[in-house]
Amino acid sequence: MLEKINKPNDIHKIALADFPELAAEIRQFLIRSVSHTGGHLASNLGVVELTLALHNVLDLPQDKIIWDVGHQAYTHKILTGRKDGFANLRKEGGMSGFPKRKESDCDSFDAGHSSNSISAGLGYVRARDLQGQNYRVVSVIGDGSLTGGMAYEAMNNAAELKTNFIIVLNDNNMSISKNVGGISSYLSALRTAEAYTGMKMNTTKALKKIPKVGPAIVDTMRKTKSSIKQLIIPGMFFENMGITYLGPVDGHNMRQMMRLFNEAKRVEGPVLVHVLTEKGRGYTPACVHPDRFHGTGPFDIKTGKSLSEKKIPTYTDVFSETMAALGKEQKKLVGITAAMPDGTGLKKFGKLFPERLFDVGIAEEHAVSFAAGLALGGVTPVVAIYSSFLQRAVDQILHDVCMQNLHVVFAIDRAGLVGADGETHQGCFDLSYLTMMPNMTVMAPKNQWELEKMLEFAVCAAGPCAIRYPRGNAYQGLKEFNGPIQYGKSEVISRGSKTVILSVGSMTAVCEQVFHEMKDRGDDPTFVNVRFVKPLDTALLDELAKDHSLFVTVEENVKNGGFGEHVASYMEACHPNTRVLSLAIWNRFVEHGEVDSLRARVGLSPVEILSAIDNELSEENGYEEVK
Length: 627
Hints:
The protein is 40% helix and 15% strand.
C-alpha cells in the first residue's frame, strides 16, 4: 500500500478496506526509519490512523492542517510524498523532523513549540473569510498542549466565529511526560465516561417513554443550556466556551473518525473533535516507555534499547545529581518544571522530595510567575527549562522576577546549538534576552564540576540567577581549574600577552583546542573562562587591556546582544585602542544538523576560530606597519 503513496492526495486512490494495511505499513516504516536516524517516535505512532482519516476527508494543499508542536507529523510527511526523505531525517541538509513550509506546500505552519496551533488556525480562517476563499482549516492540538494558556486565549477568540473551523484534540494522556493539572483531570473524566453520544440516545429514549410529559421534557432540555450533554458530561467545558464538541472517538478507528470529521465540516462555527489515541501504538517498547521514545536516538528494534553507549554524564545528569544533593541540605529548595521532569533532570529530585517538585504543565509563563510567588513566600525555587522554551516567558522573567529582584534560579538546559531538532529548538538567544534585564546574574559553566559549583552558588546567592549549559555530555577537561565561584569574577586559565581568548561556557572545550594550537606554534595567548556573562568582570578587562591588543570573545549565542557585544561596548568606552573580535552565531536561525558540523558552519569550530584570529592578527599587524 505504501508504494502507492508518492504525492499529496494519493490516499484518495486507496480503498477504505485497505486503510488498516496501510496504517500497519506506515508504522513499520516509521519504526525502521527512526531506529536508524533517531527522532520522535511514540507521538507519531499514536496518530497514524488520525492522520490517515484527516487526509482522506481533506484536499491538500488547498485545505490546511496546522500541527501543534509538529513532532507528530511524520505520517503527514509520508502521505504528502516525502517518505524518501526519511533516510536523512533531521540530518544536515535533510528533511526536518517538524513541519516546514519550505519543504512542502502541504505544511501550513512551521512548528516546534506548543499551544499555538489554534491561534494560527484561527488566523488562517479569518484570512480565508476576508478574501472570500473556500477551504478547510484544521488545527491538531494535543492534550498536553492544552496545559498552555495560549490555547485558551485562541479558543476564547474563536468562539465568535460564524464559519467553519475544526480543532482536533489528540488526547493521549501525555505531553512529553504524564500530563498534570485540571484540564488533564477534566479530559480523564471524558475518557473514562461511556461514549456520551450513546448515553444521550438512551437517555432520550427513556425520557420519551414517560407518558404525556416525556417528549416535552426532552424538547425543553434541548432548548436550554442544561442540555443532555451537560447532564452526562458535567461542565461541557468546550461547549460553554462556544465551541461545538464532538466525541470522544477512538483515534484508531478510521471509519468513526472520518464520519465525525465529515460531520465537523458541516458545522458553521468552531468545532472540536475529541480523539483518543495511544502514544507509541504498535511498538511495545514505545507503549511501555512513551516518554523515553518521545525523542529518541538510534535504537535496536528488537529490544528498544539505545545503540549509543552512555559513559560520560550529561550536563542534565550533573544538574540532577546536584539538585538532589542540595535538596537534602536546603529544606526550602523547590524545583519547577514545565511538563519535563525527566528531560530537565528534576525527576530524581521529585522522587526524593515529591512535595517540593512542581510540574505546572506546558506553561512556561506561569512557571516563572509561580516561582516569583514562591520566592516571595520564603522558599528558593529552581526553574528548570530548556533555553528555547524559556523564550516564552521573557515578560515574566523581566517584570515578575527581575523587577522585584527576587531570588529565583533559572537552570537553562539545551543552551546553544542542540542539533537535530533545528531552528525551533536551538538555544541561541538566552544570553541576549537575559543580559538585558536589570538585577539578573548570568553564568555559564566550562565543565561538569563548575556546573555543580555554580548551582550551589546560585542557590545560596541573592536576586535572580541564571545558569545556562548545553545539551549532551558534560566536558571532562580542565578539571584542575576548579577554584571557588566568586560573584562576577572570571577564571584565568593561562596568563599570556597580546591576545586574550574569552570563552563562554560550552565553548571553553573548543577554545582550549585553539589555545593549545596557538601555544604550539609559538604564540602566548591568555585563556579566560568567563564564568559570569553578567555582570562583566570589568576589573579583569581593565587589567588585560594593559598588555593585550586583541580581545577574542567566543560564545554559542547570537551575536546581537551577546557577551561579545557587551565586551566590545565596554572596551570602546574605556579602552578604545583595544580591538575586539566577537565570534558568535550569525544573527539568523540555524537549521538542523550535527552540532560539530553546525559549529563549523557558523564559524565556531576550532579551525574557524583560529582562522578568524589569524585574520584579525594579520589586519592588526598591517595596521601597525602603516602606522
